[in-house]
Each structure stands twice: as structure tokens, then as C-alpha cells.
Amino acid sequence: MIRTETEYKNAQERLEQEKETLQRQREQLEEMDLSEEEVERALGPLISFRDQLREEIETYERMRRGDLSALHDLRSIGRWLIGARIAKGWSLSDLADALDVSVQQVSRDENNEYQGISTERAQHILDALGVRFRLEVEEPITEDENDSETVPA
Length: 153
Prior knowledge:
Layout: H1 5-31, H2 36-64, H3 77-88, H4 92-99, H5 103-111, H6 119-129, H7 143-148
Helix pairs in contact: 1-2, 2-3, 3-6, 4-5
């Protein structure tokens, strides 16, 4: 996941390099008189890497525009918090200052996508970013459903 402008710029440069590498590889494979299917199969890993890099760049650009997807699963709150920081235009340092912690701490937390974050800590980050958060339950569990999904101890 791209988390900073520096990482974004590096990813863009890497994408350009990957496009050039892919083109050179394609030309070399075609010179070997391989079928189109064989060429595509040989290039598969490079194409997959390029596509993944492109997707990461597009995701970062969406976050920067403030286009954050709805949070449908609390396990993805870490990614969402990172996106909220990016959407606000804040650096890791800006968030660290607002939270009164070190940049290294924020960087570690974001590298781990806030794995295991407490609700109190998540709320503290949301407050620092000026984000209002609302939890909405779409399909509440009824008493009958709750009984059938009880996990034995």
C-alpha cells in the first residue's frame, strides 16, 4: 500500500520502468518465434506485477481525492485510517504531531495497517484527523439468529 507522496512518486517511476521492461521482454520473446500464448504465459508474472502496481497507484490517487470507500468490516479500519490521513493531505509527521507521538510510531502503525488497534485509539486518530465516524448496522441479529450462531465454549 502506498502511504506517502515519496512512495507514490517512486511507484510511478517503477511503473514506467516496468512498462519498458515488459515491452523489451515481449520483443525478445517474439524474436524467439514463440506463439502469442507462450509469450503471454511467459510475461504473466510481469503483467501481474505491473497491474498490481497500477492498482496501488490508482488507490492512492483516489484516497488523495478523498474518495474513501465505505467501511464495511472493522478489520479494514487500519487501511481506512491511512486513507483518511492521505485524503486530508497530511504527512506521517502531521499525524504524529496531532497525536503527540513520534513519526516512527505512526509509520510502524501504518506499516502494520493499525493491526489490533483499540477502539479508543481509533477514535483518537479520527478526532485528530477531524473525521466524524458513524457506525450503522444494516442487518441486526435477531434473537433466533443469535441462538443458531452461538459458538460452543
